[in-house]
glucose-6-phosphate isomerase (Bauldia litoralis), 374 residues
Amino acid sequence: MLFPEGVAIDGISGEVTPSTDRYTKKLSELSGLFHDAAAFDKVVAEGGDPIAYEVVDYRKQECDICFGTTIMMPGQVGGEYFMTRGHFHERKDCGEGYYTQSGEGLLLLESREGEVRTVEMKPGICAFIPPEWAHRSINTGSEKLVFVWFCATDAGHDYGTIRERGMRKLVVERDGRPAIIDNPNFA
Amino acid sequence: MLFPEGVAIDGISGEVTPSTDRYTKKLSELSGLFHDAAAFDKVVAEGGDPIAYEVVDYRKQECDICFGTTIMMPGQVGGEYFMTRGHFHERKDCGEGYYTQSGEGLLLLESREGEVRTVEMKPGICAFIPPEWAHRSINTGSEKLVFVWFCATDAGHDYGTIRERGMRKLVVERDGRPAIIDNPNFA
């Protein structure tokens, strides 16, 4: 039987207390994600394979919904900002909310039909992610980007689709600001 | 087809922009909820039937999850703090999250089996509400209590069970602080 509980969310560090699970993605685990492979190898080697992001879960299998945080470090690879892998949900009826707590970023979304949208990520904005829209978050700032996510417990993650063909757009720094450009490698 | 969107949530006012729906509960609509019926009539009459709380929705029927805010005014009726009606979900597998943005309160919960729990509501605490736990939020502070909720779009509300028999506990002010006492009227 499940019991109610107060879960502390630190909007600056992203810590979730208590949490049920967590994982860390080091930059080296994001091989193939960035446009500039040589720059990627260099940042991994010279930066000591930094952490790119962490995901902390509060997830109970007996409950239909779950939540947690994503903590994204600032950084760039060849002008591209640090980003998450990007995924569709396995369940085609499942959306998600990304409620930014601190930092700044862009949420890059792409529908199954190939439409592209972005949503600004900043404190006080809850991004609504409809079903069947792949989503990737991108830290465009100089501090951590921390957001609370909430979705169905069994929404599932399809990372493969985006890993294989990339997304149609890249988010890069141009003149000190984020710019959205076509991905020349989009398959 | 649904499109992504950035939804602004004001953690102080509770405003949601854009929102899809909202409702306001005036105190008079909460008749029968408070222990002291005479005090209730007096507060309604002398206070000009104040707003007790508002609920603002961001809800798309084609998406499995939804979110919004609840904005609870401070106030008391015969020593009992302003509270929401309290409800179970109609779908027995549906939980909910209540993420407090500002103010202070108590979340009072009661399982189908009659177990009682409370969770402190204050900024940074996300209350986890498991399936099959009735929940009522109570503003124990002197300011608005604002929280973001998220749950399944079709979780449904069963208000009747609590309306008919009440909850096992009352939350009242004692020596300037909230105290949890037995409800003498619990049926």
